[in-house]
Amino acid sequence: MKKPEPSQPKSTKAASRPAHAPSEKSERATKVKKSTREKIYYAIFVLAWTAFSVIASQYVIAFPMAWLLGTEATEPFWTLIYYTLYNVLALILVLFVPPKLVALYRRNHDKKGQLKPTKAAKNDAAKTGTDTANSLFSTNPEELGVAKWPTFVDIGLAPIAYIAYAVIANIIVNFFTLFSWFDANQEQNVGFGYFITTSDRIFAMLAIVFIAPIVEEIIMRGWLYGKLRDKFKIPLAIFLTSILFAVLHGQLNVGITVFVLSVVLCGLREITGTIWSGMLLHILSNGIAFHILYIGI
Fold first, then answer.
1. Burial class (CB in 10 A: 0-12, 13-18, 19+), 258
2. Which of 5, 138, 144, 254 shows its CA 20 to 30 Å from the CA of 94?
């Protein structure tokens, strides 16, 4: 009679794992949970840093100008200077400061987040400094959406997208007018008051129609959206970018319209691969609003 052969373990890998060791399934779940947590922290940082850069730059420029110029700071020429300076400062803060902060943190902390001894931090300064360009918060032309030159397609899509934006925004605003707490006619304070001369209108046009849209597109649909779409699905990246863009405008009626505008701008970036068409749309939108507010009246 043939003796039965002893049964072999189904999996050598499973048999070799200690009883107290976590299973492959739990290890995968832990990795997924850690990855999700890191993405959330990343999103919070880029959103918060963008908001901080835009808001802080306004105060940093406004207070010294008000102190130095007094009431003259509200004149159109100086308001143009204010627009220029705070937008440039915001651009610098968004594009160049985060990599420096990451490099500084890595120089002074180990992989577990513990502070390094002062001597060790100094010895690692050169090594971590070279890693700055490869950090999560560095950027490049592709991520900013400016790697390619504008095309005729970008130019042609801008007015078409404006019509879509205007129709959708008008429908949503009309819906909100059904609620008594919503004021659709609340005016937006853009910093410019009554214009006395033609040059005043030119100063205002340069600030509102050109400087603001160009810088906002580089920051919002360039840096911020580029960062978010790299970590999250496109719809979520569009929503987060657009909701922050709306909040930064500080008014509910304006926030609703610019939220729709941001969604369309992000869509244009996905279609064209660059921010040029969105930038043209933003300039067109602000130009039409400027004409209605300051010229057509």
1. buried
2. 254
What tokens does 60 get?
A: 């940093």
Asked whether the CA dihedral 40, 41, 46, 49 is positive or negative, the reply is: positive
pLDDT, tens digit, 9 for 90 and up, residues 213-260: 999 999 999 999 999 999 999 999 999 999 999 999 989 999 999 999
Cα Rg of the chain (Å, integer): 26
- Phi and psi, residue 42, nearest 5°: -65, -45
Could you state, in order of their start, the residue ranges of all structural domains in the chain?
34-189+196-295
Distance CA 46, CA 275 (A): 19
For residue 102, how many other CB atoms are within 10 A of its CB? 18
One-letter amino acid identity for 239? F
Q: What is the DSSP string of 85-121?
A: HHHHHHHHHHHHHHHHHHHHHHHHB-TTSPBPPHHHH
